[in-house]
Each structure stands twice: as structure tokens, then as C-alpha cells.
TrEMBL record:
Protein family: Belongs to the NAD(P)-dependent epimerase/dehydratase family. GDP-mannose 4,6-dehydratase subfamily.
Known function: Catalyzes the conversion of GDP-D-mannose to GDP-4-dehydro-6-deoxy-D-mannose.
The organism of origin for this protein: Kouleothrix aurantiaca
SUPFAM superfamilies assigned: NAD(P)-binding Rossmann-fold domains
GO biological process: 'de novo' GDP-L-fucose biosynthetic process
Keyword Ubl conjugation: no
Name of the molecule in the record: GDP-mannose 4,6-dehydratase
């Protein structure tokens, strides 16, 4: 145990945190997960590895808790995945989103600077920073033009990471990850909302799916593939920023078509447009150029869009059948 490399993951109870914890355990790491206090247990995504990781309370809103956590756990690597991550919510809670998703990054970076500036740091940056279409495909050099309080907060988180790298020589890297999904995706995100509805409709539990903008285009990959890129960034001699994406873009409509089609249903008979799911400002088209990650890190996505959709529909069908 003493010789194991130790990593701290914030956001371990989230989609990416659970896949990253699995990945790091498989690499032989000792994994510490920072969890925030809640009135009910929310270990759904990590219950299968709960005995293999150490869970410790802390909150990105509370720098003292982070300093104490770092002092006690002394990790070699910190993966900062915690955030208010739902774009739609960021209009309703813009200040909270800024506190967590933007200033939370500074709290963590500053805690590292105070406790041990040699700790390597990964920041979960996002393709939402590109926002309005300025260049296609988007790459590391594409100017940011965020379109939501979430996107604005992520731009802050990205630049403060660059700033701590340049100011203090810290090994701080920012992964600009495009949308990545999985059966563990939260039910409010469009992909999981669709695959869950497909399963419910197929099993006779529902008869419609209410959605917003069907024409938005996203570069969707599989979360299990993307966590490897996070780890690879922290294994490099030099810290840097990397776009992580598949290079393919698909519309929400196309996602519906494939997901419903997988169970022999016609999406147009079930999908109902609902204004409540339209956004005040939309990100119309995201497609990433991950050449730098592919050449420097040797990373590439392994799961096709079709396989991802099928995996998610099958998982939701199995889940619902299991619940019955
Ligand atoms: P999730 O929403 O699934 O998980 C977010 C995690 O952050 C949860 O574990 C949540 O804890 C935790 N968290 C939220 N607020 C705090 C806080 N104040 N203190 C401590 N923990 C907190 O997100 P994903 O796993 O999908 O994404 C991981 C990161 O990657 C996020 O930063 C997201 O913005 C970013 N990202 C995600 C992309 C994607 O497509 N998934 C693409 C690009 C970037 P709890 O369970 O208690 O709520
Ligand atoms: P996104 O993901 O905003 O890209 O952020 P989301 O799945 O929420 O939306 C994708 C696109 O689908 C459109 N859409 C709907 N979205 C939701 N959630 N619900 C609907 O009913 C609906 N109808 C249409 C949206 O308008 C949008 O265009 C995700 C998050 O994981 C972020 O944390 C991350 O940074 C980015 O991906 C990259």
C-alpha cells in the first residue's frame, strides 16, 4: 500500500469520477474521493468500488476543507471533476455555478499551492467554453465565446489553471473535453433522457418524450474512453491543455432516431417539442479536433457513436426490467 501512487478525485460520485476511479484502481493507484455532505447517500455510481476507495468529506465551496483534505491524504495527483455541471441549471443558479465551477477551481489550486505545489493537477474544462461557433472544428487555439453562465465559469476555471501553471510553475493541465456520455450519465442530460425514455416507452411505462432543440449538434463520445486522456495528461513531463473529442458531430434529432430505431420505434411518433427545454442562448455546433491529444498523448476514442447509443439504450432497458 505504501508504494502505491495516490490520487484525489473531486466529483467521484459523478459520471466521470466513477469511471476515473475504476481506471486509476486498475492502474494500481490508491484512490481518495472527495464527497460533499448530503442528507441521503448518493453512491449509486461507485457502490461497486466503494470498498476499494477512501471517501473523505470536503467541498469546493470551502477552502479550509480542501486544505485539510490535502494535508491528510497527500496525493500525488488531483483530478478536479467536481462542478455544477448542468448547463440549463446555470441560468437559474448563476452565482452558485460561478462559486463552484469557477471559484472552486481557484480554491483547489490555491490549496495545492499552500500544501504541496508539486501535486499534479487536472482541471475538467469543457467544449462549452467554445460556445458560439467561431471556428469549425474547435481546437486548443480556437477563441472562447461561452453561451451560458456554466460556460463562462468554465472559461474562468480554464484560465486560472493556466495562470497557476505560469505563476507558480505548477504541473496543472486542462482537458477541454467534448460531451461524453454513458449509462451512468445523469437523467437530465439529453442523451440519457432520450435512452431512458426509449426504454420506458418500449416497456409500456410512458408514451412520449418532451425535448427542446433537436437541431443542436454535439461531438458525443464515451466517458469510459475519456477518463484515460485525463490520466495521460498528468503523466506528461510538461503540463498543457488538450482537446479531447471524437471529431464527429451528430444532432439531437439523429440521437433520437438511432435510439428509438434500436428498439424498432419511430422517434417522430413520440418526441414532443417543449419550450421549457429550450435555452436562452444555445450552442449550435460542437465538433472537436483532438489531433494534439492523439499525437502527444497517444490517446484515441474507442467507442463509436452507434455503439454508444446502443450501449445506453440496452443499459436502460436492463435497468428498468430489473426494477420491475
Ligand atoms: P456530474 O454532474 O455527473 O458530477 C459532478 C460531481 O461534482 C458530483 O460528484 C457532485 O457531487 C460534485 N460536486 C458538485 N458540486 C460540488 C461541490 N461544491 N463540492 C464538491 N463536489 C461537488 O458531472 P460529470 O461527471 O459529467 O462531469 C465531470 C466534470 O467534467 C464536471 O466538472 C463537468 O463540468 C466537466 N465536463 C463534463 C463533460 C461531460 O460531457 N460529461 C464534458 C466537459 C466537461 P454530488 O454527487 O454530491 O452532486
Ligand atoms: P450540454 O449537454 O449542454 O452539451 O452540456 P445536454 O445533454 O444538457 O444538452 C445537449 C444539447 O441537447 C439540447 N437539448 C436538450 N438538453 C437537455 N438537457 N434536455 C432536453 O430536453 C433537451 N432538448 C434538447 C440542448 O439544448 C443542448 O444543445 C454537457 C454537460 O455535461 C456539461 O457539463 C459539459 O461541459 C458539456 O456537455 C460539454
Amino acid at each position: 500500500m505504501a508504494n502505491k501512487k495516490r490520487a484525489l478525485i473531486t466529483g467521484i460520485t459523478g459520471q466521470d469520477g466513477s469511471y476515473l476511479a475504476e481506471f486509476l484502481l486498475a492502474q494500481g493507484y490508491e484512490v481518495i474521493g472527495m464527497i460533499r455532505r448530503s442528507s441521503t447517500v448518493n453512491f449509486e455510481r461507485i457502490k461497486h468500488i466503494q470498498d476499494d476507495v477512501t471517501l473523505t468529506t470536503g467541498d469546493l465551496l470551502d477552502e479550509v476543507s480542501i486544505i485539510n483534505l490535502l494535508r491528510e491524504s497527500r496525493p500525488a495527483e488531483v483530478y478536479n471533476l467536481a462542478a455544477q455541471s448542468f448547463v440549463q441549471t446555470s441560468w437559474g443558479q448563476p452565482v452558485f455555478t460561478g462559486e463552484t465551477t469557477a471559484l472552486g477551481v481557484t480554491r483547489m489550486l490555491d490549496a495545492i499551492r499552500i500544501v504541496d505545489p508539486d501535486i499534479r493537477f487536472y482541471q475538467a474544462s469543457s467544449s462549452e467554453m467554445f460556445g458560439k461557433v467561431v471556428e469549425v472544428p474547435q481546437r486548443e487555439t480556437t477563441p472562447f465565446y461561452p453561451r451560458s453562465p456554466y460556460g463562462v465559469a468554465k472559461v474562468y476555471g480554464h484560465w486560472i489553471t493556466v495562470n497557476y501553471r505560469e505563476s507558480y510553475g505548477m504541473h496543472a493541465s486542462s482537458g477541454i473535453l467534448f460531451n461524453h456520455e454513458s449509462p451512468r450519465r445523469g437523467l437530465e442530460f439529453v442523451t440519457r433522457k432520450i435512452t431512458n425514455a426509449v426504454a420506458r416507452i418500449k416497456l409500456g411505462l410512458d408514451n412520449e418524450l418532451r425535448l427542446g432543440n433537436l437541431e443542436a449538434q454535439r461531438d458525443w463520445g464515451f466517458a469510459g474512453d475519456y477518463v484515460k486522456a485525463m490520466w495521460l495528461m498528468l503523466q506528461q513531463d510538461q503540463p498543457d491543455d488538450f482537446v479531447v473529442s471524437t471529431g464527429q458531430t451528430q444532432s439531437v434529432r439523429r440521437f433520437c432516431e438511432l435510439a428509438f430505431g434500436h428498439v424498432d420505434l419511430d422517434y417522430s411518433k413520440y418526441v414532443v417539442l417543449d419550450e421549457r427545454f429550450m435555452r436562452p442562448a444555445e450552442v449550435d455546433l460542437l465538433v472537436g479536433d483532438s489531433t494534439k491529444a492523439r499525437t502527444t498523448l497517444g490517446w484515441e476514442p474507442e467507442t463509436s457513436f452507434e455503439k454508444l447509443v446502443t450501449m445506453m439504450v440496452e443499459a436502460d432497458l436492463a435497468l428498468l426490467k430489473g426494477q420491475r
